[in-house]
Design a protein that fits this description.
two-stranded antiparallel sheet; extended; about 450 residues; about 80% helix; 2 strands; mainly alpha
């Protein structure tokens, strides 16, 4: 007997084969997790230039678009038209973006490196004098306390012996490893510089080919999905782009303004390391929620070594600056670009920082905002299909106020006149509705379901 295989049999066989292959892959990934992690890290290292290029292209895309449109308008403003006007406009936009990259990098290096080198040299020069002054201060303080002075001297001797033992037992025998670590760090820095330069080249390709890439991706989506699904995917991509672009660009502008304000105030009061500290505050302010405090820690330490009073004043100033940014400047620039509550902002920053470090703290807010929006949309759709309200305020249970009396009125199938008979014999309509409708009507029609339910709430003080 000949067996005839239909199309559904081939689909079942293919599905079973794919399930078997997926199970084997998952088992191998769990059994040899170190090998899989190494392979993933290797792939990430190879793709890092593309990541750098894509990030730079995404940040520079608004500038590139504006410069290209402006150049194209100027080229077509007169009587004569260029033969390759759009290509020439793209070249101008690309040159402007490359100049912005090098200007930003050069400006950051010029603002940070001299101040950093100066602070390191000053710390090296002040350390012996500071330690000597601290010792004199401790001796004068404990001059009239011989027991405490002996205890302090014993602690100092123990600390000195521990440092000597650490140097002889840990540092000197591992000089080869230290040299290897330093050399690997230098090689890593050189590799990062090469990846960054390649990323600039990839950024140029992304900027000039973004329209083609977007059209190709749209073509793939429409060809492989239904029309409604394709529209939802494209709308979701537009929403994601708007959320990411609005948050990141707004946060960069906000951080630049905060850094400039910090520099102006520190220059007015004559505090030390104004340029270096302002750069630190501005860069770390990109991190939501924790950024100002992260930047304030090294800044306070720098001022503390020079002038403790200035360090105290700077702490007060950073607190005021953070309040100004969080309550006035930030909402004006960012607006409702994320739509997240403060709790979810804190949650996203902690999770993103734990998973991806500094980069995760920055991108965690827009990523979580997109996820939150899609989850809310799905839940609201289910509630709408069930006929329930989609407003969160309608589901709030306020236990801190006085209890509210609820008056329920139910109507069953058919006319309501039979149920209203005998209402004049009751003391109040509420008692009639509770006893007659809630009990007698339920006994008369036990299987009937209510069509509508209206709830009226009156607050009592």
């Amino acid at each position: 007997m000949k067996i005839r295989l239909e199309e559904k049999h081939y689909k079942w066989g293919l599905a079973a084969f794919l399930v078997l292959v997926a199970s084997m892959i998952v088992f191998f990934a769990l059994y040899r997790f170190d090998v899989v992690a190494g392979a993933v890290n290797k792939i990430v290292d190879i793709l890092m230039p593309f990541v750098y290029g894509l990030v730079m292209a995404y940040l520079l895309c608004p500038i590139y678009n504006n410069v290209t449109r402006g150049s194209y308008s100027l080229l077509n403003k007169g009587k004569y038209r260029f033969k390759h006007d759009m290509g020439f406009a793209k070249v101008i936009g690309t040159i402007v973006c490359i100049l912005i990259i090098f200007i930003v990098l050069g400006g950051i290096a010029w603002m940070i490196l001299p101040g950093l080198i100066e602070s390191i040299m000053k710390v090296v020069d002040m350390l012996p004098t500071g330690m000597h002054n601290f010792q004199i201060w401790v001796d004068n303080l404990l001059a009239n306390l011989p027991v405490a002075q002996e205890t302090m001297n014993s602690w100092v001797d123990q600390a000195t012996d521990s440092m000597i033992d650490f140097a002889t037992d840990k540092i000197l025998p591992n000089t080869d490893n230290i040299a290897v670590g330093i050399s690997s760090g230098v090689i890593g820095a050189f590799g990062f510089a090469m990846d960054f330069l390649i990323g600039i080249i990839i950024c140029v390709y992304f900027l000039n080919s973004k329209d083609t890439f977007a059209a190709q991706m749209k073509k793939v989506i429409i060809a492989n999905t239904k029309e409604e699904t394709a529209e939802e995917i494209l709308a979701g991509a537009e929403f994601t782009n708007r959320t990411f672009g609005g948050f990141i660009s707004g946060k960069i502008i906000d951080s630049a303004i905060i850094g400039i304000l910090c520099f102006i105030v520190m220059s007015i009061f004559g505090w030390e390391y104004s340029l270096l500290i302002s750069c630190i505050i501005g860069i770390t302010n990109i991190i939501p929620f924790f950024g100002p405090f992260i930047g304030a820690i090294p800044s306070v330490l720098l001022l503390l070594m020079v002038n403790p009073a200035h360090a105290l004043y700077f702490i007060i100033f950073v607190f005021i600056l953070q309040q100004f940014d969080g309550n006035i400047l930030g909402p004006k620039i960012l607006g409702e670009s994320t739509g997240l509550a403060s709790f979810w902002v804190l949650f996203a920053v902690l999770v993103g920082g734990g998973l991806m470090g500094f980069v995760g703290m920055i991108i965690s807010i827009p990523v979580f905002a997109v996820i939150y929006a899609y989850v809310s949309r799905a839940l609201n759709g289910k509630l709408s299909r069930k006929g329930f309200s989609t407003h969160t305020s309608d589901y709030v249970v306020d236990k801190y106020r006085a209890k509210v009396k609820r008056k329920k009125r139910r109507f069953f199938g058919g006319s309501a006149e039979p149920l209203m008979e005998g209402m004049e014999t009751y003391e109040s309509p509420e008692k009639f509705l509770h006893e007659k409708v809630g009990i007698d009507a339920a006994k008369e029609e036990p299987e009937a379901e209510p069509e509508t339910e209206e709830v009226n709430e009156d607050n009592e003080s």
